[in-house]
């Protein structure tokens, strides 16, 4: 059914968890990974989507350890103290031989030292390091990153894409 095709299990950060804040998304398990997780617990996808058994199944999933859920998760998220996303690990987005198919995207944030309500002055900078980025060798031809500057309204002013330490493209909006 459609509900089974779109079923997913999401786990959120709880009080005392590191790398996140209460109620922030931590893990997402869906598709065949969700079916495998359920099967490992003697459950089926129907148990999760059937109104008569879904609350019991949900409780069983919630009782699982993070390490058990992590083994099946398609996505894992980490946040900084400002509640900004700093790390995403995606299943199937990395090297299958060196990272088991897990790809890590990392985010860095910076604010301008000047405060301005001028739409043409940047206030926020976000750098996104794509999966496989080698911080020990920033000029590696395999490295890809995107730097985005935005104004006080959050509107993108400049976006720079770099590959191997060289600028691949720039988009400027004014």
Structural features, described:
The chain is 19% helix and 35% strand. It is α+β, with helices and mostly antiparallel strands and 174 residues long. It has a nine-stranded antiparallel β-sheet with strand order 1-2-3-4-5-6-7-8-9.
Number of helices: 5
Helix-strand category: alpha+beta
DSSP strand tally:
9
Mean pLDDT score: 90
Shape: elongated
Gap from first CA to last CA: 48 Å
Biggest pleated-sheet summary: 9 strands, antiparallel
Rounded radius of gyration (Å)? 20 Å
pLDDT < 50 stretches: none
Widest sheet: strand ordering = 1-2-3-4-5-6-7-8-9
Name the beta content range.
Answer: 35-45%
Encode the helix/strand succession as letters.
HEEHHHHEEEEEEE
Portion of residues in helices?
10-25%
Keywords:
elongated, alpha+beta, 174 residues, 9 strands, nine-stranded antiparallel beta sheet, 5 helices
Give a topology summary.
Elements: H1 2-5, E1 8-12, E2 25-30, H2 31-40, H3 45-49, H4 54-62, H5 66-70, E3 75-79, E4 85-91, E5 102-111, E6 124-129, E7 144-150, E8 156-163, E9 166-172
Antiparallel strand pairs: 1-2, 2-3, 3-4, 4-5, 5-6, 6-7, 7-8, 8-9
Quick recap:
The protein is an alpha+beta fold and 174 residues long. The chain contains 5 helices and 9 strands, in the order αββααααβββββββ.
């Amino acid at each position: 059914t459609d509900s089974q095709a779109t079923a997913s299990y999401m786990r959120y950060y709880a009080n005392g968890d590191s790398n996140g804040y209460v109620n922030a998304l931590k893990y997402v398990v869906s598709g065949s990974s969700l079916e495998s997780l359920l099967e490992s617990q003697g459950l089926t996808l129907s148990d999760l989507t059937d109104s008569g058994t879904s609350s019991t199944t949900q409780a069983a999933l919630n009782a699982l350890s993070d390490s058990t859920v992590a083994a099946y998760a398609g996505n894992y998220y980490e946040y900084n103290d400002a509640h900004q996303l700093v790390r995403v690990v995606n299943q199937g987005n990395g090297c299958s031989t060196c990272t088991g198919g897990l790809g890590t995207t990392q985010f860095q944030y910076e604010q301008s030292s000047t405060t301005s309500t001028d739409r043409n002055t940047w206030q926020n900078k976000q750098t996104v390091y794509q999966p496989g980025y080698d911080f020990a060798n920033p000029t590696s031809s395999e490295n890809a990153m995107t730097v985005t500057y935005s104004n006080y309204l959050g509107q993108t002013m400049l976006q720079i894409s770099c590959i191997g330490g060289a600028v691949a493209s720039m988009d400027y909006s004014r």
